[in-house]
Amino acid sequence: MSDEREHDGEHEYDHENKHEHDHDEEDEHAHSTPPRDTFSHDPVGHATVHAGMTVGELAEQYGRAGIGAADLHEAVSITEAMFAEDVTVFFGLAGAMVPTGMRRVVSDLIRDGYIDALITTGANLTHDSIEAIGGKHHHGCVHQEGKTEREHDETLRDEGVDRIYNVYLPQEHFAEFESHLRSAVFPVLEREAEADGPVSIERLTRELGRANAEVNATDDVPEDAGIAAAAYENDVPIYCPAIQDSVLGLQAWMYSQTSPFSLDALADMTPLTDLAFEAETAGAFVVGGGVPKNFTLQTMLVTPGAYDYAVQLTMDPPQTGGLSGATLDEARSWGKLEKAAKNVSVYADATITLPLVVAAARERVETSPDSSVNQSVSDSSVDQ
Amino acid sequence: MSDEREHDGEHEYDHENKHEHDHDEEDEHAHSTPPRDTFSHDPVGHATVHAGMTVGELAEQYGRAGIGAADLHEAVSITEAMFAEDVTVFFGLAGAMVPTGMRRVVSDLIRDGYIDALITTGANLTHDSIEAIGGKHHHGCVHQEGKTEREHDETLRDEGVDRIYNVYLPQEHFAEFESHLRSAVFPVLEREAEADGPVSIERLTRELGRANAEVNATDDVPEDAGIAAAAYENDVPIYCPAIQDSVLGLQAWMYSQTSPFSLDALADMTPLTDLAFEAETAGAFVVGGGVPKNFTLQTMLVTPGAYDYAVQLTMDPPQTGGLSGATLDEARSWGKLEKAAKNVSVYADATITLPLVVAAARERVETSPDSSVNQSVSDSSVDQ
Amino acid sequence: MSDEREHDGEHEYDHENKHEHDHDEEDEHAHSTPPRDTFSHDPVGHATVHAGMTVGELAEQYGRAGIGAADLHEAVSITEAMFAEDVTVFFGLAGAMVPTGMRRVVSDLIRDGYIDALITTGANLTHDSIEAIGGKHHHGCVHQEGKTEREHDETLRDEGVDRIYNVYLPQEHFAEFESHLRSAVFPVLEREAEADGPVSIERLTRELGRANAEVNATDDVPEDAGIAAAAYENDVPIYCPAIQDSVLGLQAWMYSQTSPFSLDALADMTPLTDLAFEAETAGAFVVGGGVPKNFTLQTMLVTPGAYDYAVQLTMDPPQTGGLSGATLDEARSWGKLEKAAKNVSVYADATITLPLVVAAARERVETSPDSSVNQSVSDSSVDQ
Amino acid sequence: MSDEREHDGEHEYDHENKHEHDHDEEDEHAHSTPPRDTFSHDPVGHATVHAGMTVGELAEQYGRAGIGAADLHEAVSITEAMFAEDVTVFFGLAGAMVPTGMRRVVSDLIRDGYIDALITTGANLTHDSIEAIGGKHHHGCVHQEGKTEREHDETLRDEGVDRIYNVYLPQEHFAEFESHLRSAVFPVLEREAEADGPVSIERLTRELGRANAEVNATDDVPEDAGIAAAAYENDVPIYCPAIQDSVLGLQAWMYSQTSPFSLDALADMTPLTDLAFEAETAGAFVVGGGVPKNFTLQTMLVTPGAYDYAVQLTMDPPQTGGLSGATLDEARSWGKLEKAAKNVSVYADATITLPLVVAAARERVETSPDSSVNQSVSDSSVDQ
Asked: pTM score, two decimals?
């Protein structure tokens, strides 16, 4: 008991020692609070939500909070600046964003003039084209390692269905895609190659966009013509460094074996670098990691300037040490971002954050009375 | 060359072999598509966003997509059902949700009658109370392992500032919290303990809510009275199994050393189990993992029924094997969820998904013409 | 062409501008390398592995590398210091570590005198006891959200098998556990409670360890007596703040309803704090997050000292902002770690890193010629 | 009170209902255990570690446990089969594996004949070459988003130091690398291009390996000649689809602007596909995700066969839906893996798991008395 009391005394003391605790409230702060250079007054608010609020209003509420919500709010502000001001926007699109439903968000951004160059994967272009010519992806289900997942995927194999996480693609669409490439895309490139040697990858993606737009219109496909088509129609170049690493690349390779057609691996780097050169102000909007992220950032290694704005939406954790999850500040050490650049990374599922950030940024840009782009925006982004 | 052709032939063959490819489009599907029992027609749509859309409209768009977006859409639908129908809702709140700005989203849900029991941590109650009596958290910055982070946290230590990821808390608020507990909360419980023995943890959280509401009103604190106060005023019990594991718990322990006051670790399990018993339909809305998640789910181990609805917002990956990231289907094997239960897990930052899911679900429930709760909803959730 | 050349010139220039590139290697460093205060010479080596190397040798190789390997190497060094020197070691064990095969690693550490206090979950104690009295967990398979996972877990439910990620537990073991508690554990505590009021949680875990050891011996169970038994036999206290949050806690509650038995939620904090007080040097070894992590760290909030060593093995990402993934430097701002403390977090699956770190640390401690603990180590850790 | 008893009665009943609890142990299993088709007897053991155990012995212990430890054990067994049997091994190496210390593990595997084709990134080849010619990476520290990280990276920028997570690279090494390429690598390729048109990427990596080996020997560089050199000396082709996406690619592009040198994007796909064709048995060992993972797997889309063995070491979570974290079973639905293939994914930091899996597999293969490769193994992998 006395033992108890003794400890209690000690605890009191130590507690004091730890928390500058003082029972005399009045003069406590006077004597107990040390000078604070690191800490500055910037209270955390609390997000408040209500029925019927707009996405832009929700984004404002995120700004009151911490952790990822604060990052998301900053991502909206930086994206608003990229969209509203005269910024050359380089858009990196990795991952399975097209088969999983992000196709229209990107094609609308292109149509409405928010993107100046797209850096993406052959897979995204393959799946974008399949939908442009009438194919469809389907909602499916996922399995983990283990006997049953195996059986499930074996069955899908028997049924000729390819799985992308929780999305299915019937394989016959690849055959339709091959026919499309062999009839509407490769022949003209073959002639150009015969005349002038290997064509650039950007030349292929442009021709693909033209053909997708044409077939989408003539076949009256319900789904919109998509990303490559929108880029073609709006003179937005699409760069795809690892094109071989996709079904589109496999098709190009097979076609090249019986024709003079071939692709130049280096040619695109000149116009891409030129675009970075000519940019008064440059912004990078990167969805996911991989080659699209690195290629978007590395072009600044060979230009005097660097990115003034950068937003990254990723779910790869930075502690893996991989580039995909690397912070954008890391890119600053390489000179890929300006020291004064505004940048933020949002670590959350991009299928959730991409539509959220784009909707909120567009709300700010397009509904502000003095919005410069206000008029220029077509109705394409209004959901029919 | 012939070598080439030979390979090309082989490739063609194998390609056929892999993709049932056929140049004759017409009758392809007839002969090339195998019977498909696993695959069913359920096309992935593409999210479309536009300026000024509501959060509920955005949630609809997520439903078109795959991966996390599809899960988020399902979370909104299940939450709508929990909120609209006569469901007893058990709300698990883990993590650093209060200091990082989610306090008001939860207190509004309690005030508007959407929550029947709250299972949370002592930390959330500590930080909720600090703001109720006039303290504030502040936006700060984060550091990783390494020399500089260390120096940063050493400086914060010198300055008497505690860091919670990117949020700061000046330590004097803990002293104010201690005074609050010793003057307005513990004395009455001490008398009850003297008369009837150890009090329940729920009795402490209720008294804390009463005191927080009182001080918040008398001191005219700009921030709202918070979660514990809202629970007290709306007769919503707060269960906090690991209360010792918090500053609130440390204070209770220190007070108990010089008084007959003590807490009964088991008492709350009876009313919580009774609530689960009496529930016609039961729903679990779990934010984060840890004790709040497990305690919310395990109560069904000792009741004949189980949860009919369950939504989980977490960023812990399932492949760790830990309970925090475990899927809700796993809980079904334990009998914590009904076989027929509707459940989904959203793997993304909860500070982003919680306001998003709540705003979208409230939009559906409160703006539908025949909304039963429509009238009952106060204006508390309208942002001032 | 001239255009080309012009660009090439520009690129050269910018390239210079970016990388201080100079064709004259000799005097390059002289003029092109700026003063470097941040950067210091500390070359990354390259891990080299060979057949038959020991785990300790592998750990040395990790020290040459970066990212997680470097962290793991540091974890081994800090653990070695905790084990070799006269350090009071607080061991936090969260997660599903016992059902997933980490039980023996921990019980051997206790038997060999490396742990002074264990802070864990009721779940770990429940699964530890089930194996002590003859029950077994089994390898199983995992499923993700989706129709098939659901069916799988529904089937397991019908078959009376509980799933913990990829581990199965037949439910009859819970009934055996209940009988064990009601026959060998609760009665004596009931008598103590009748005489002296609520018992402490540590008193329950100690009695559980005694009973587990007894039954394990009398029933000649092939599996070893486990963690609670080893703690009992070596006078190592086990603290379990959230004991209600487990099947053990549910059993205690049900027993308490028809007996004077009850548990005091606060009692254990005094001896735990005393242990921290008396520690000349204190170390925290934390596996996973949750309550065991926070409770292990927070005890230093009410002691004059703090941890001198801290190792954390976790797979929760820090960017969630949750405590489970929080860096240990963050804990320094709270005064839970000494400013001069040695600490590291390893972000990887703990079922992989725990045996690895322990084996490497034990190799260093027990095989060094001047090892103080060398003799004291029993053969319990030699695999039979 | 009666209320209490009543509840207790109910609880008993429900408890029965949930856990087939029965106080009569004897005939319990007879009547309470339902038929179990899903569940099979496969007890989880418990890892036991001791001082001085080999990495192979540790791997055996992982096999007793669950979650990631069980996966790692399976990875060792599958890798053993790939190394011991006559399997054509395709090795995918992504991420920052070379700058972070995994260079020697891979170059030793090549020298000892365990790898038949390497698919990697331009970044890994760039960093491999920098060390081959005398440059070094250095241990550094990491920062997160926030003011201070920014300042840190700004300082590194001023100091001409590039950061890769917690690894630093002084920028002058890029200039040395450029000189190396322009003097020893590009000229010969320029002549070949002048004569025969664009060269393949594999031709460039082979020439790079030759030059690295030469300079490493003549300059007597302490670090070993590395991956590209080992591949050159052992006729192991290196495929690098996204070579443009690296400093090596930028250098190739700049050189190509003033010379006839250029690279063919498609040429490598023929020999790679041929290798897959000719493989009696094929295995994929994939470290990290991105292009190396997908390119390694997709080659099976145009061959009649598929992988018989596949091991993936990654830290990308599968729930992102991205390819990098995708399970290998998913690849089965595409026909990239044989239905009967043995495959496993280990979700943990690859800098920890790669040396661990390789050391354990080599121990099994090289120390087994009847090991076929036993003799063929050079001493190169013995740590000096």
From this structure: 0.87
